[in-house]
Design brief:
With about 170 residues, the chain is of the alpha/beta class. The chain has a single domain, classed as 3-Layer(aba) Sandwich (Rossmann fold). The protein has six helices and seven strands.
C-alpha cells in the first residue's frame, strides 16, 4: 500500500530554514499520530537539492521552506523549481501546499516568487504562509549559524500539523 505523503522540501544555509522545516515535520508527524493514521500517511522532509521528480509527483501535499536571499528565494530552492517545473506541470493540480520563509527583515519577495511558481503548478495554498523574521541585518549576522527559539518555531510546527491534518481528513 502506498502511503499518502506530505513532502517538506527545504533549503538552508545558516540552519534557520532547516530548523523551521524540522519543526513543521514534527508538527505534521504529531498530527498524523494523534489522528491515528500513521499506517496510511507519512511525512517526508528532503533537502531541495535531493528531491526527485518521482518524490514530487508521489506527494499529496507540500511544504516549501527556504531562506530569502537578496530579496528572492535562495538559489538552491529556485534551482529545485527550475529542475522540476516543466516536468511536473499539469501533474500537481489542486494539491495543497504552504510555505515557510526565513528572512532578515522582510521575506515577502521570496514568498511572492514561490507563490507565483506554485500558481503555475496550480497548487492550492491551503494554509497561510509563515515568514520568520530573524532580524539579521549585518553580513556577520546574516551568515552566522542560527539557533531559533520556541516562539519562532511554533508557527512552523502549527503549519505542519494543520497541513498534515488536512490530507489525513
Amino acid at each position: 500500500m502506498t502511503k499518502q505523503t506530505l513532502q517538506i522540501i527545504w533549503h538552508s544555509r545558516t540552519g534557520a530554514s532547516q530548523q523551521l522545516a524540522s519543526a513543521a515535520q514534527r508538527g505534521a508527524q504529531d498530527a498524523l499520530t494523534a489522528l491515528e493514521v500513521t499506517e496510511t500517511h507519512q511525512v517526508r522532509s528532503t533537502v531541495a537539492t535531493a528531491v526527485s521528480l518521482k518524490q514530487l509527483l508521489h506527494a499529496q501535499a507540500f511544504i516549501f521552506c527556504a531562506p530569502e536571499n537578496l530579496a528572492s528565494l535562495s538559489g538552491e530552492m529556485k534551482a529545485f523549481f527550475d529542475r522540476h517545473y516543466y516536468a511536473a506541470i499539469e501533474q500537481l493540480n489542486g494539491r495543497p501546499y504552504s510555505t515557510i520563509i526565513s528572512a532578515g527583515s522582510d521575506g515577502h519577495n521570496a514568498l511572492k516568487q514561490l507563490q507565483k511558481i506554485c500558481t503555475g503548478w496550480r497548487l492550492d495554498e491551503a494554509y497561510p504562509p509563515y515568514v520568520c523574521m530573524l532580524g539579521a541585518q549585518t553580513a556577520e549576522q546574516i551568515w552566522a549559524p542560527k539557533q531559533l527559539n520556541q516562539e519562532q518555531l511554533a508557527p512552523a510546527y502549527e503549519l505542519g500539523a494543520n497541513l498534515a491534518a488536512l490530507i489525513a481528513l
